[in-house]
């Protein structure tokens, strides 16, 4: 029989697959239904292959509020690999600040001109209209807990910021964070929507509301 070589799914696997597709359709249906907020955290799902782990709603709100205060009235905020903070900032529909998102994941290009494709391997490969030292605060969450990733992301941060830096990364990166960005650990402990094995912390180089 020619069909013998075609792999067959077990009834259990088939049922699980059908359930997955049904859930996906329901999610897509919710997204297109009236009242869907394109900026809500989780509206674009995590891609673990890109080392994406979204903050909890409370953490994203706290970091967004901190950024608004730090930036000041009419301030400019850059979110580097921190899309859930960007989404929270956009949810505020603030007229007193502007924000852009630098992100490797092109799904975030749905946010239009505020989206800037960013690959930390090329930290200064940025659009010409992204002028040096043009942001009042830069919030960054490097995707990997490695010194190489932090060092290269730090180049981008230092290029963009007028001075203020809010870094979110693992507690194990404290020494490297101080070395590359001159930031100190805060008392505030960021949480993620899914529990991570690594302890996460926030770091700043200014007097913040996170202590």
From TrEMBL:
Any one cellular-component term (Gene Ontology): cytoplasm
Pfam families according to UniProt: N6-adenineMlase
The keyword Transcription regulation is annotated on this UniProt entry: no
Keywords on record: Cytoplasm, Methyltransferase, Transferase
Span of the signal peptide: none
GO MF, any single term: nucleic acid binding
Chief location category: cytoplasm
Gene Ontology process terms (BP): methylation
Reactions that this protein is recorded to catalyse: L-lysyl-[protein] + 3 S-adenosyl-L-methionine = N(6),N(6),N(6)-trimethyl-L-lysyl-[protein] + 3 S-adenosyl-L-homocysteine + 3 H(+)
Annotated TM spans: none
Compartments, as annotated in UniProt: Cytoplasm
Name the record gives this protein: EFMT1 methyltransferase
Species assigned in the record: Aramus guarauna
